[in-house]
Structures are given as C-alpha cells and as structure tokens.
C-alpha cells in the first residue's frame, strides 16, 4: 500500500465495525451505529451520490438504446466488424501518446522515462473511468505509481499541472468547436448555444482552479479533509511543498506550460480523427467540420458531467442531441457512443493489466521526503 493509500486508511480508520458504539447515533449500537456514522461522512455521501448517478446513467443509456431503433443500432455496431478494432486502437494510441507528452512537460524536469510515463497514464485512466471519484481516483494512482522515480510532492505537482493543462487545452478545443459551428451556419441553433454555455462554465471552473493553485491548493484541502475525519498530518509538509512548486512552475516554466497545453490540444484534435473514422465506418460520410462539432460538444458534456463515472448515459445523450441538431439519425448517435464505449472497455482492461505489472516497490531514495 502506497503512502497516499496508507495515509487515507490511517486517517479514516476508527473503531472496527464490530465494536460497540453509543451516543450521537440516535440510540444505535454496534454495526448499525458504525454504519450510521460512516454514512454521515461527507466523503461517503459523495461516493454514494456518484454510484447513484452511475446507476441512473446506465438506466438512461438503456432507455436511449430501447427508444432509438435497437435493431438498427445492433446492425450498425455488428457491421463495423474488424473496423471496430481500428477505431479502438489506432487513434487512441496517438491520443494517449500526445497526452503523455503533455504530462511529461508538467514536470519541472524530465526524470521519468517516457515509456514508463505512458504505462502509468493508461493505468491511471482505467481507474478514472471505473471509480466513483469524479475522475480523480486515477490521478492519485498516477502519483502513487510515480513513487519509484520521483518524490511524492513532485509526483502530485505533475498530476495537478497536467490536469490543469489538459483542461485548458480542452477549453481551447471547445472554443474551436464553437467557431466551427458558427462558420458552418449554426449561429442560432440550440446546439451552438449549449456549447457556448458549456464553454462559459468551463472558463469559470478553470479560472477558479488556477486561482486556487496560486493561492495554495493543498492547505485548504487538508483542512477540509480533517473536518471530515481524514487527517493527513504526515503529508502536511508535502502539501506545502506542492503549493510552492505549483507557483514556481507557473511563474518560472512558461515554456513547459505551453508545451504541455500544446500536446494536450493536439490530442483533442486527434479525437476528431477518431470520430471521423468511426462515423465513416458506421456508414455516415461526414465532413471533418461535422466531426469537429460532434467531438467538441462531446468533450464539453463529459466535462460538465464529471460526477458521473465515465459520463455513462450523459455522453450518449449528448451525442443524440448533437446528431439530431446536425440532421443525423439518433440511432447512429447511440451506435457511435456504444462503439466508443467498446474502445473504453478495451483500454480499461489494458490499464488494469499494466497497473498489475508496474505496481512494484519504490526505491528507498525517492520515498516522500
């Protein structure tokens, strides 16, 4: 168990579930009282909320399939045949390569071999897609896997910077989508208005996130965790070093910052290639302009629905709205979304296999210091 996991386990630990607890739980004792106390924790409530959102997303996805010609959807997916493998592997490998380059430049120095970093990213994204942690569980996994190469504060700093730059790049990509949609003759469409609202939301969120980093991100986070019962006193100094490192990075490393954003932006653009190929293989010969609008709006929907694990249901619903607004069949939108889910499932499996292979013991010289 790594330092982050040990700290969380140690902070959250209390009386065993079988111990007798009394008082403050309405007269409950034993396991019932322990369960009541656990469910009253804000962190536990958020986890339950995300699980509920996942269940609702799966139900909504089922409704989308059932109400949009299931036979046509099945025929479209089975008609992909070997082409599904092309969609699942070719563009995604390029996307992940450029995203890994973006992460590489989120470090103050190049200290981690690129192939190792690539493997860690794939493993971390598998956890992001499968855990009810608002796409943050995988970031903790990435930081933990880095322990063999860099100190904990360097690992956390790189993850935070990369999360910032990939989101900045996604905002630029959404802006590109808005411009393309406007030039394509959709100035008064509800689709364009929705994209603009999502862009505004993303800009506000990004500004808040960057300001929080410049003012000290981890101090307030650690105080909040202490209020809900997770005391990470052991890592207080690590948090302070990360806060100082973030300010230093943004002020002293503009070249690395710009390169990180640029590589992530290229990765978002390559998502257009994936959408273009998938739609062509599904028998819908769209232009790159249409593929750009579909991909840009899809990424915005995922950003807005980050609480739903993998945006299940929400992403497919966004595709249906986009396709219908562009005059494309809703059944094709659902088939398109399911084909992408197949790609996600493949890489989740690959990510877990990689995680099992790379979760070795850290070297003594790079334990958190």
What does this structure look like?
The chain has 369 residues and is mainly α. It has one domain (38-362). It has helices at residues 3-12, 30-39, 42-67, 70-78, 83-104, 114-130, 137-145, 152-183, 190-215, 218-227, 236-252, 254-281, 288-304, 314-325, 330-358. Helix 6 packs antiparallel against helix 7 (137-145) and helix 7 crosses helix 8. The longest helix has 32 residues, at 152-183.
Give the secondary structure arrangement, pairings included:
Blueprint: H1 3-12, H2 30-39, H3 42-67, H4 70-78, H5 83-104, H6 114-130, H7 137-145, H8 152-183, H9 190-215, H10 218-227, H11 236-252, H12 254-281, H13 288-304, H14 314-325, H15 330-358
Structural class by helix and strand composition: mainly alpha
Distance separating the two termini: 17 Å
What general form does the structure show?
A: globular
- Binned strand content: under 5%
Summarize the structure.
With 369 residues, this protein is mostly helical. The protein is 74% helix and 0% strand.
Structure keywords:
single chain; 369 residues; mainly alpha; 74% helix; globular; disordered N terminus
